[in-house]
């Protein structure tokens, strides 16, 4: 045994946990070994969520207070009992990703620093046809949790009206997920189109509390994020521990629990006892695969979103694009910072506030846009302000960015490919 490691026997396999005493959650004191033992205690439920699926590795090798990085390719040095499958991405590149089927494989992945689990919506046996439609409810800042639950119940009704069974879970963060098993008979593009139709229908039935508008500055209430069904997207699976200070868990629920559920009730400490007591509320999910025909027919009947009006937001000096990218918008947007970390981006906002006192204080929480953007292997962060409701003659002009980080410096991709984020 290596110094500073511990070997766990899991279903006949030896799983080495390196640096088992490393603290991953500073506030609660939970270590890497605690994290591995948690996943083993709920392995049946976790494997229902991630089993047979290729998985992107989101690695917090130094705990949740340090930046994580995404790793698509399976580590070259791995036990022979770790399985992989090849995935091809829209960029033209490909990678062999980990496929978890057994508890030992799950523990091995967690030892890599994977606090939460990020499976794709396909099975390893058919990586071209999703068997899962994912509804991601993302509240804008300032929205109460009760509104998120209300939208979830509307989503359940819409799904049922189109012949699909929704399975609810908390995200372990601010939002809510509803997954539907579907027959693996449709392409990613078709699943995405069905999800967009679903999102528009939810917003139409609950216009005061739900939106399907893609651009942040146009949203209100709870955003029904249909883009989680795009080909290269992964979401945190059920039973995933999230990188929060209280080690919350994405908890699978029954619909009876949804009206009164509180995300704070589900943590790395409470979930093992809950699982031992009631089992997995999603135990029957694989028996409910449905059809997308009805949602695709709905998509045919829906009108396309109107073309954006207004103007392209001005870019900061020296930048090729501004707060609205290269698209037009009717909102008045100011870009403040592009930073490697959220903290650095918000520090830039604080400096901007000193030079422009009284502006941010007049904005609603949803008008302060903090965007987590997808970089090459890690996220980067952008801060923008929607100053539409500030009189035009009182709005500050677009200035040089307070923090000017280029996540794609030195990037080279396939011919004709463009870096994400522009």
UniProtKB/TrEMBL annotation:
Domain of life per record: Bacteria
Protein name in UniProt: DNA polymerase domain-containing protein
Residues spanning the signal sequence: none
Ranges where the record places region Disordered: 301-327, 395-422
Stored InterPro entries: LigD_pol_dom, NHEJ_LigD
Organism: Virgisporangium aurantiacum
Record-annotated DNA ligase D polymerase domain positions: 31-282
């Amino acid at each position: 045994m290596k110094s500073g490691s511990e070997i766990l026997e899991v279903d006949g396999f030896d799983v080495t946990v390196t640096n088992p005493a490393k603290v991953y959650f500073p506030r609660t004191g939970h270590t890497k070994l605690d994290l591995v033992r948690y996943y083993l205690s709920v392995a049946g439920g976790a494997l229902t969520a991630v089993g047979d699926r290729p998985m992107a590795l989101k690695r917090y090798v130094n705990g949740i207070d340090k930046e994580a990085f995404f790793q698509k390719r399976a580590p070259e040095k791995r036990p022979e009992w770790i399985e992989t499958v090849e995935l091809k991405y829209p960029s033209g590149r490909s990678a062999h990703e980990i496929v978890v089927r057994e508890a030992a494989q799950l523990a091995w992945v967690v030892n890599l620093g994977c606090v939460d689990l990020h499976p794709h919506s396909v099975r390893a046996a058919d990586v071209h046809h999703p068997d899962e439609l994912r509804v991601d409810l993302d509240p804008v800042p300032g929205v109460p949790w009760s509104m998120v639950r209300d939208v979830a119940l509307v989503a359940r009704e819409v799904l049922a009206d189109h012949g699909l069974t929704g399975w609810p879970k908390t995200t372990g963060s601010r939002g809510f997920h509803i997954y539907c098993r579907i027959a693996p008979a449709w392409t990613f593009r078709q699943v995405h189109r069905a999800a967009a139709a679903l999102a528009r229908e939810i917003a139409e039935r609950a216009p005061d509390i739900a939106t399907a508008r893609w651009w942040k500055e146009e949203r209100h209430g709870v955003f029904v994020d249909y883009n989680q069904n795009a080909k290269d997207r992964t979401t945190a699976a059920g039973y995933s521990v999230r990188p929060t200070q209280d080690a919350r868990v994405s908890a699978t629920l029954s619909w009876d629990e949804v009206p009164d559920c509180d995300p704070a009730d589900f943590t790395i400490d409470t979930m093992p006892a809950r699982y031992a007591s009631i089992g997995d509320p999603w135990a029957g999910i694989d028996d409910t695969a449905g059809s997308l025909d009805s949602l695709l027919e709905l998509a045919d009947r829906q009108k396309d979103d109107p073309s954006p009006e207004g103007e392209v937001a001005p870019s900061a000096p020296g930048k090729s694009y501004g707060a609205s990218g290269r698209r037009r918008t009717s909102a008045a947007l100011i870009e403040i910072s592009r930073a490697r970390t959220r903290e650095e981006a918000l520090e830039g906002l604080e400096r901007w506030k000193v030079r422009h006192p009284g502006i941010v204080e007049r904005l609603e929480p949803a008008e302060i846009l903090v965007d987590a953007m997808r970089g090459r292997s890690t996220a980067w962060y952008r801060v923008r302000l929607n100053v539409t409701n500030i009189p035009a003659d009182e709005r500050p002009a677009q200035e040089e960015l307070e923090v000017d980080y280029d996540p794609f410096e030195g990037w080279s991709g396939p011919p004709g490919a463009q870096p994400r984020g522009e």
